Amino acid sequence: MTYGLQDFAIMRSMINGNEADDRRKFVEHRKLDAIMAFLETPSCRRQALLSYFGESIEPCANCDTCSNPPDTWDGTVAAQKALSNIFRTGQRFGAKHLANVLKGKHNGRTEQFGHDQLSTFGIGEELSNQEWRSVYRQLASSGLLDVDIEGHGGLKLNERSWQVLRGEKSVTLRTDPIMLKPSRRKTKGERIDEDGAISTSEARQLFEALRAKRQELAEERGVPPYAVFTDRTLLEMVRYRPKDLDEISRLSGIGAVKLESFGGIFLDLLKGHEALHGRPDDVPMHPKALDTAKQKSSGPNETVRETATLFKEYGDVETVAQKRALKPSTIWGHLTQAVTHGLLDWQQACALSEEEVSEIRDAITAFRSRGIMELTPVHEELGGRFDYPILRLVRAGLMRKEGMHV
Ligand SMILES: [Zn+2]
User: Fold this and answer.
1) What is the 58 CA–ligand 1 centroid distance (Å)?
2) What is the average per-residue pLDDT within 348-360?
């Protein structure tokens, strides 16, 4: 992404600060939401843009998301929750309120409308409030719901929404949603009291060390610190003291991309801290630990398994994509997940020669040793000879092979 998140905050405040009446401002905010949704689409930009005008086209193969597809996840269940929530609340609320309902937030509005009594109240624990809003934007940008731009900005179901709700259509979402604002700011003391995470000087020292590392990574990348990890994620690290990447993956706000990019770095820091200070003896279990144990027994989700099975049979991404009526980029994403979960041998999946594999591995390792986790420089270093999906797959294979400590 080449636009800055700050740009959106600035545009918002410009809209709020100008002379227009509230009605006009409202419309401007809705337009800005539409632009956000467009930028955030995991699929073809042209397709997303034209869907706003009611036209549908095949992916263009020319825009940035076509030529370098972002990391995605199977968001079908999340989309069903989000859409069902629109239906239950009467198809007239915006994403902000809808996200609050999914998160089970008791506030004036959810109670005033009796939304705390709905079956969708609090069923969205797995994502953060910001992530749910991103889900709604992404659904809007892919035409899976309608936005009443000129009206009150309420979200409504359309024909395609019902296909998702009936399970006739799967939904792919991008893993790196755009965060519009950092989590709400409070004074340090307050935040720490509320969370209860920081009660000793040892814990405070760890928190400060995590914050310093975050700052360093953010500066290197020219992004705001919360784009690395939010305060909440760092506080959970202090509270739950994850011992491996699997435990880090359970913390709030950590998706596959952040786990890959920063998980190892923060894990090293946590280990270093523990080596010096020991492990506190009252570390609680993370609430998601039980869920994860459940997930482990069932492993990766069904759709990934199906892709892996078909790939073993046909050995070719295009064929599997056709058989499954999914995009090749989605299949590549599944293969990468299958490799991560050990369902598939990565060398078999990437179909590269020994020399090519070691070339890619050397490039990835060289950049990692300099603290650069992204694949863009690797891609360039290798003269663009390997597509991003291949690079991601090799990276996943290396992470698995090396015990996730590349
Ligand atoms: Zn395109």
Assistant:
1) 8
2) 84
Domain ranges of the chain: 5-174, 190-277, 302-401
| Residue 263 DSSP label | I
Residues with CB under 5 A from ligand 1 (ion): 44, 59-60, 63, 66
Ligand 1 center to 67 CA (angstroms): 7
Higher pLDDT, 227 or 19: 227
Residue with tokens 């050397």, as numbered in its chain = 362
Cα 16 to middle of ligand 1, angstroms: 33
Cα(93) to ligand 1 centroid in Å equals 31
Domain 5-174 grouped into CATH 1.10.240.10: no
- Category of 204 on φ-ψ map: left (φ > 0), alpha (ψ -120 to 50) or beta: alpha
Please count the other Cβ atoms lying within 10 Å of the Cβ belonging to residue 199. Answer: 13
For the segment 275-320, what is each residue's pLDDT rounded down to a tens digit? 888 888 777 777 766 554 444 444 567 888 889 989 988 888 889 9
In CATH terms, 190-277 corresponds, of 1.10.340.30, 3.40.190.10, 1.10.150.80, 1.10.1040.10, to 1.10.150.80
